[in-house]
Amino acid sequence: MREFQLKPRIQFGKDALALLERLPALNALLVTDSAMVKLGYAQKITQIWQQQGISYQIWDDVTADPDVATVARGIRLMESHFPQLIVALGGGSVIDAAKAVLFTLANDTAAPKRERPCFVAIPTTSGTGSEVTAFSVVKAQGEKLVLVDTEMLPDIAILDPAFVASVPPAITADTGMDVLCHALEAYVSLHASDFSDALAEKAVQQVFCYLPSCWRNGDDALAREKMHNASCMAGMAFTNASLGITHSLAHALGGVFSIPHGRANALLMAHIVAWNADYAGECDNAAAQKYARLARLLELPADTTQQGVSSLLLAIRAMQEEMKLPLGINELSISAEQFEQQLAAMAQQAMRDSCTPTNPRKPDLSSLIALLRQAWSNRALALRAQEYK
Length: 389
What we know:
Layout: E1 9-12, E2 27-31, H1 34-38, H2 41-52, E3 55-59, H3 68-80, E4 85-90, H4 92-107, E5 118-123, E6 135-140, E7 143-148, E8 156-159, H5 169-188, H6 194-216, H7 221-241, H8 245-257, H9 261-276, H10 286-297, H11 305-322, H12 336-352, H13 365-376
Parallel strand pairs: 1-8, 2-3, 2-4, 4-5, 5-8
Antiparallel strand pairs: 6-7
Helix pairs in contact: 3-4, 5-6, 5-7, 5-9, 6-7, 8-9, 8-12, 9-11, 9-13, 10-11, 12-13
């Protein structure tokens, strides 16, 4: 018997934020970051609470890639002012920090037992899907740890496209490729199902249709809304199906070299699609067949499985090039010596990552090292079999 989790309730579209006006509470906590305060987005939340007479506190110093010290600050704030309502307003880091606090409190046997607050997530980037997942990524001693627990699932996700209207092109590209990676990895995961497949397929279609438009013209309201929805659908797919080694390696790479998560995924994604599909061999395993199905859904050439995989790889690379994303890790401010020194440690961390067991092709340490080395190169993705041995 298997399960598909449908929580949280999703409120989406223009003026979705109005739902907050109907959520009763005596006291609340807003989890956010300094950027949301400067942009005036945090005030949109607090104004609603002021009008309703709700007492509130703001935790606004959450930084990118939250660590255990960040989580500890949130716990202390919760203990001094335990709220009935928590709203996390921000990107994946903000939502993950709020989740980690709830996770820690729920699993602390020494903490007094209190009723769990109503947890609302309002994403301000179209990327992580954290508003609908049971995952949280927290840094500990320089390593990104992936927490997985249904206790962290928000009760309500508010997808209001007004909050992503001003996201700059570079972040739009990084977070959009994160959406694509979530959908692709959930689609071929060993835990994939008919339900997660349906969401992943739709998310992939919307990314290819709307992400370039978002990048070219941030004022394209329809494209922004469609990408925001795609991010959520991909999140729903992977919280049920889990992910794979693109994320495992991206967690390690990003943790060591401070690379934004979506960009790390983009650097690795095509190489791992090719490896999962056994592009160097028969290219006819279950993952290859599913990739070829995606190619057909995208109306790309896919008369054979291998042609479909090739078409999908080329489409991924073409989108990266259009959005001027780096194509190799060596385009970043990382020396070859630094990269080689960290290579084995990154591969070992990826082997321990909770996303690795559901990858469709079982990796070993040497294959992960080889994939990292392929992703290092700045060359265009080579679709020759010898590149993926």
